[in-house]
Amino acid sequence: MSAPPKMSWPDLLSERRLGNNDFKPEPTRSTFVQDYDRIVFCAPFRRLANKTQVQPLYAHDHVHHRLIHSIEVSSVGRSISNRVGSSLINNGELNEGQVVNIANIVQAACVAHDIGNPPFGHSGETAMGEWFERLLQKQSGVFSGFPSELISQFAQFEGNAQGFRILSNLEMYRGSGGMQLSHATLGAFSKYPVSCNDKEFLQKRGEQYVGLKKFGFFEAERKWFSEAAQDLGLFKRTVEHADYWVRHPLVFLVEAADDITYGIIDLEDSVITGELPFEVVRDLLFKVIGDTNKSVSGMIDLDAIAYLRALSIGAAVGAAHDSFLANYDLIMQGKFSSDLIASSHLAAVFKEIKDISRQRIYTARRKTELEISGKRIISNVLSGILPIYDELAAKNWNASSLSPHTSQLVRALSLDLRAINDATSALHGMADFVSGMTDRYALQISRMLSGT
Fold this sequence. Notes:
Elements: H1 9-12, H2 31-40, H3 43-47, H4 66-90, H5 96-112, H6 122-138, H7 151-155, H8 159-170, H9 183-189, H10 196-204, H11 222-232, E1 236-239, E2 242-245, H12 249-273, H13 278-289, H14 301-326, H15 328-332, H16 347-361, H17 365-394, H18 404-413, H19 423-435, H20 439-450
Antiparallel strand pairs: 1-2
Helix pairs in contact: 2-5, 4-5, 4-12, 4-14, 5-9, 5-12, 6-17, 9-11, 12-14, 12-16, 13-14, 17-19, 17-20
């Protein structure tokens, strides 16, 4: 019996740039380092500095926001990649140059992994989805006759899909591949290689695959994802009329870096903000390290937690490396359907960390207050800009025909209406505008629109 087919590293590390068939790699600068540079210099990445990670911003200067989180994830992702790459060299799977490329690809994908998230943390996604679902059900104004097959992708607004939209369409070369990142970096970025409708259909059919938990691209960007996936050699699976692709192997390293970072860092932040006592966090980190006798006597509490945090990340990097190697064949066959940490020897303690975070950090009063106010702010902003798009639809998408008051509002908000020519692009325009806001700017615009 022949061995199951595997994805190929030369294909998976493709340097081809999205939407740019004339691209030629520079001899002195890695394509994937260029990807990283393009991401960290773009405006959506800078805005992460004023977007909530877990703890509400401005309450404490030392807790994490999304930009710092993204940088830390990229550092952890690079560490995992270097260890995995070295082992794959020893196993004859890779050569030296490919290991460097893997580390650079993962670092770039990690630094971009939250770039599509709206203000106010994950509750912002829920708030946007709920608002779109309410209005789409009314089928009035700009929503009149909206295609039923496109409703779910707005009603289930997804930051991962918005991130792919930013990278592949909106930034730099708008409509021509966006940032024109390498196919490899886009593949490593895409945790959920499926559209919303296909994801829903496949879930109802009982299809079991880790990449189907959420959706990773809007229909507007399907062609861009398909281009990258085909070049990368990602296996495509079809169930009746629904398609999905298997994950790029490096997605598992990006995901592990995120899981490690937020799991451990949320604990550290919880000590700073008082959600968890020092002793609880200390003992959890001892379990991650695997050494309950590690001495932190003589250290002040925050210094001890910082020290244990560093050791814990190192231990978790090793666990992710071991898990990747243990599941390597299944990963390369597109059959691995878990995450690396949940499949590692640290699975139990990371589950314990998630459980206590859900019970005592994510439900803390200050975070709950943020979610309630954030939901109202996002609803206010979307409701405040809706009349612009309703009028635009009534004027047959001719922005020059808008009333003086509406035109004034467009100028005040710096809304870009150039690409708005139907209901779908209008909804994307609204989602692009609101999801791109920082927490502070969303509050400012909400106040302006409501006159408060």
